[in-house]
């Protein structure tokens, strides 16, 4: 109480107690009593949900008094009506929005209990013992589940928030915005908010901490995502609890082909995070300990289960991260030189396939078990830039030209700066970007691309390992996700399970990784006549006809690739390209490693023509 108030209180007291003071009169101020009633009314309305069980008890009691006085014989009908209503609620014909069994059972039990009491009170009178006590204890018993029910409480919170939104919006700088619709879900509630003309979703994104403060939520509870259909709307999600508070257990590979999307984890609404890695390069970024290796493990565990993929790995941390997958990796490079060789061979495969595709008149390599995709996994790409500069040129080439021929990169790094990625275009070629927690806000744009932070991709606010944001053609909103957690034991079990049955690289791609060599080295001793005849054919009809003839004339144990190179005068990749094409068409068979002949059926010689 301040000094002025104290002084006026003293004066008032003096006036009231002095002898010449006017007689004290209690004046009922109508205006104030009206305000009081209004305030009580407002309070009752505000807490109407909490007061519902008490109101129901009071109405039932009142109905009992009236019915006993007017229709005491109606009790059988009341009983029957309440039983029918309970059955209808249980069946879901009444109160349809109660979509859970527990909720329907509660509503049915309350209806039949209230009906039973009302029937008894109608017949016997409300005051007949133990009816008053039953009404009191019944109201309390029905009230407990009601008051503690999470969904009801959440619904009430949403209701109040919608009403308070104009005030909140004004104080957080989104004046004029309105909540258009709101729903309660398992973890909190979500709403669609319309913005005042001229405001954008970027304004809402930049005010997320203010929205959290305005709504009185915990930090990190609010998500703002653009509405794809309207620039003047956004989706607001408030998470009362963090759905990703606990690690998400991995349940096994979700893909059996590189053409299938891979399930990486779950979004906050419990829907799975699925993304395709077919003909796409991928970048995984995040600080140390954010869970990059964990995400790589999920991807590798899925790709290991796909027989139409060959996996190569580069791990310049001495193989620490990728060695557990060694059984499933066709190649693993752990030194700078090995990494450069591996990427150079990757470019070789790419070129070999590109040549074969152009010969077949096709544009893309369709992965199959005979002609698998090649995925090159690079753990900590920055090490590559530091230690194996030569390798960066090859990586760049693969990033730019590898998609069509299904030779792709999957790179993980802490900060994909220009320096860490090499001064090449690798980062800009990454179609799938997965951002775990980053240290600085600007790192969001480094991993996900320019402008993503401003668009609401707040990866700097992710607060646990394995939490991530995914940007891919099929994931274009900043939805928070958590990757499955694969334990070390699961990694070794998965590698052990799929390792022995991994598909080898196709012969054409293999040949493209080998240095050009003299075909004479492993050539068979073939008669001079054949070579001479082949030379003639080659000169007249071209190398393909010579190849077909040599395959037709091949002995039962086939002809070596070196011979085929000699008779056609063409390189290894060209020969393998044709052989693979004929093999896919069922026209030639690989008799043993590196030996081929045309297919012969039922002992007859099936000759091939071009
Ligand atoms: N999806 C996940 N769910 C829960 N915990 C996880 C998840 N992924 C990783 N972790 C935890 O975080 C720790 C660090 O993960 P991880 O080694 O994958 O991080 P990293 O980013 O690869 O780190 P570094 O850059 O140092 O290699 C792990 O030991 C694991 O306990």
TrEMBL record:
Residue ranges annotated for the FtsK domain, each copy included: 270-445
Keyword Transmembrane part of the UniProt annotation: yes
Domain of life: Bacteria
SUPFAM superfamilies assigned to the protein according to its UniProt record, in alphabetical order: P-loop containing nucleoside triphosphate hydrolases
Annotated TM spans: 51-69, 75-94, 106-125
Keyword entries, A-Z: ATP-binding, Membrane, Nucleotide-binding, Transmembrane, Transmembrane helix
Keyword DNA damage: no
Protein name: FtsK/SpoIIIE domain-containing protein
Binding site for ATP: 286-293
UniProt-listed Pfam families: FtsK_SpoIIIE
Annotated region described as Disordered, given as residue ranges: 496-521
């Amino acid at each position: 109480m301040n000094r002025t108030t104290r002084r006026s209180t003293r004066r008032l007291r003096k006036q009231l107690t002095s002898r010449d003071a006017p007689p004290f009169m209690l004046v009922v101020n109508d205006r104030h009593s009206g305000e009081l009633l209004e305030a009580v009314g407002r309070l009752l309305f505000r807490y109407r949900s909490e007061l519902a069980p008490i109101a129901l008890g009071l109405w039932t009691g009142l109905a009992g008094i009236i019915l006993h006085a007017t229709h005491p014989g109606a009790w059988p009908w009341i009983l029957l009506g309440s039983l029918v209503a309970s059955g209808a609620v249980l069946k879901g014909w009444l109160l349809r929005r109660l979509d859970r069994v527990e909720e329907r059972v509660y509503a049915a039990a309350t209806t039949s209990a209230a009906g039973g009491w009302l029937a008894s009170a109608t017949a016997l009178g409300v005051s007949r013992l133990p009816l008053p006590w039953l009404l009191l204890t019944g109201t309390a018993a029905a009230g407990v589940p009601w008051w503690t029910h999470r969904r009801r409480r959440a619904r009430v919170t949403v209701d109040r928030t919608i009403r308070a939104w104009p005030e909140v919006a004004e104080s957080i700088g989104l004046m004029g915005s309105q909540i258009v619709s709101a729903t309660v879900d398992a973890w909190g509630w979500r709403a669609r908010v319309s913005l005042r003309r001229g405001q954008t979703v970027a304004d809402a994104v930049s005010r997320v901490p203010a929205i959290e403060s305005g709504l009185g939520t915990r930090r990190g509870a609010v998500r703002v995502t653009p509405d794809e259909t309207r620039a003047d709307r956004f989706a607001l999600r408030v998470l009362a609890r963090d759905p990703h508070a606990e690690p998400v257990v991995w349940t096994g590979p979700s893909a059996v082909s590189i053409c299938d999307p891979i399930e990486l984890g779950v979004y906050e609404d419990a829907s799975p995070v699925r993304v395709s890695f077919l003909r796409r390069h991928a970048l995984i970024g995040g600080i140390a300990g954010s869970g990059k290796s964990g995400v790589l493990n999920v991807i590798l565990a899925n790709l290991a289960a796909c027989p139409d993929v060959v996996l190569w790995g580069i791990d310049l941390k001495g193989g620490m991260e990728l060695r557990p997958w060694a059984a499933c990796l066709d190649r693993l490079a752990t030194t700078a030189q090995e990494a450069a060789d591996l990427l150079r061979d990757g470019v070789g495969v790419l070129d070999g396939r590109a040549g074969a595709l152009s010969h077949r008149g096709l544009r893309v390599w369709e992965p199959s078990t005979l002609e698998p995709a090649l995925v090159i996994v690079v753990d900590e790409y920055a090490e590559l830039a530091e230690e194996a500069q030569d390798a960066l040129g090859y990586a760049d080439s693969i990033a730019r030209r590898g998609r069509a021929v299904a030779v792709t990169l999957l790179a993980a790094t802490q900060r994909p700066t220009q320096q860490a990625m090499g001064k090449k275009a690798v980062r800009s070629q990454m179609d799938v970007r997965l951002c775990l927690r980053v240290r600085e806000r600007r790192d969001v744009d480094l991993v996900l691309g320019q402008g993503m932070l401003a668009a609401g991709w707040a990866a700097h606010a992710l607060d646990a390992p394995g939490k991530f944001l995914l940007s891919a053609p099929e994931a274009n909103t900043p939805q928070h996700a958590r990757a499955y957690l694969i334990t070390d034991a699961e990694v070794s079990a998965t590698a052990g399970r799929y390792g022995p049955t991994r598909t080898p690289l196709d012969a054409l791609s293999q040949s493209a990784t080998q240095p050009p060599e003299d075909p004479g080295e492993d050539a068979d001793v073939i008669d001079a006549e054949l070579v001479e005849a082949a030379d003639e054919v080659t000169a007249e009809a071209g190398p393909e006809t010579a190849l077909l003839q040599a395959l037709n004339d091949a002995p039962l144990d086939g002809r070596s690739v070196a011979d085929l190179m000699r008779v056609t005068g063409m390189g290894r990749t060209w020969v393998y390209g044709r052989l693979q094409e004929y093999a896919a068409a069922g026209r030639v068979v690989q008799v043993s490693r590196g030996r081929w002949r045309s297919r012969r059926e039922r002992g007859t010689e099936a000759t091939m023509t071009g």
